[in-house]
Write a structure and sequence with these properties.
The protein is α+β, with helices and mostly antiparallel strands and 426 residues long. It is built from 15 helices and 16 strands. The protein binds adenosine-5'-triphosphate and magnesium ion (MG).
Length: 426
Amino acid sequence: MALSIRAPRGIKDVLPPDATRFESILKDAEDILALGGFRKILLPLFESTALFARSIGGATDIVEKEMYTFLDKGGDQFSLRPEGTASLLRAAIEHHLVDPSRLVRLYYSGPMFRHERPQAGRLRQFYQTGAEILGPLSPMDDVDLIALIHRMAVSFRIPGSSLLLNNMGCPVCRPAYRERLVDYLNAHAEELCETCRKRTVQNPLRVLDCKVPSCQGVLEAAPRIADSLCPKSREHFRRVREGLDGLGIPYVLSHRLVRGLDYYTETTFEFVSDALGAQSTWAAGGRYDGLAGELGGPDVPGIGFAAGVERLWLLREKAGTLPDPESHPVRITIFAMDPAGQIPALALVGRLRQEGIPAAGHFSAGKIKGAFRQAERDGALFLGILGEDEIRSKTVQVKNLETGDQTPWPLDDIKALAEMIRKTGA
Ligand code: ATP
Ligand code: MG
């Protein structure tokens, strides 16, 4: 029967051996966050739609077009999470982890969902790992967080990676800038694409992010936020740059880097790679000083970032730093040659597993050729054969599939067999 149901568009099945490699990539990134003093938080896959609308912003692409939103059986409206920051803040506030006098550092990992046009490096379900710091922040915390991501770039040898940096101002200086920008955009409305004209009204800062070539010239000449920063934001920006300079972390000032989410204030940044093609950003984040207060928590600053794990995969693949696939996920496949061997085979795999040896059974009796094929499919290093003779002599014939050597092992000394298997190909 032909399979008529397929994975939804933009969803990627990750098969063995890639699934364990994918997890290693995730773990390598998480290890760097843990070294930075961040602690892991597990967040739900869906939240009230209102949480995302309020935090990410109602006029953003994510909330307007990309969320998977549904009514549950109780009639409440939820959305699959399109990102992690909103959930993390919600949870941190709800459980009183946010404290105006102390920093809290948290990280999360997991799938995110956005209804976007699928292409290389752009999926509808994709993994992110991200971290947030909440509390009385210094601009040096911005630098420290960026330094951790820089550490990832170095440690995974990400090819052609560079850091783009901007400061988007604060509630004091942004409104005035916004007005200057809107005046400019209105004066050039005829040269802008339709999306830009719409955004000029709804979310003018996002216009700066437009990728349409015909808009580029107009946007390059647009007023720059750097020229409108208030003294406090200007000082913040200066100190972040000073910190990065002090650590020798290179960056490129990017006055049009506004990010797609409304909650950002002050520092925004992206790590891009020229090895990624169109989807060049592999990690991105920034400060969001008003968000905790906006969500009903203590009014403390926050900063965070998220990295796209599929993009990390693509980059590590290019760099040749993908983790090795697991060799011999099954160490030994045990073959019961006939029905009388089935229960001894079951008992044997059980005892080997107890010894910590990954063991699989091939119980459906038959030709030895089939058992070899099964062992190969299992990725096994050894094939254990239980035939009539072996049952009688309480032994198992163990064949090393690489060398072809075959030795009988007594069934009453599994520890010795386990030790031999452990040593071979360790
Ligand atoms: P982009 O410019 O690629 O649309 P974004 O601004 O929407 O990114 P963020 O919301 O900041 O991205 O997400 C952080 C990171 O998550 C991105 O830099 C990217 O690596 C990854 N990411 C975002 N959307 C997707 C997606 N649809 N598929 C795969 N990875 C994604
Ligand atoms: Mg996007």
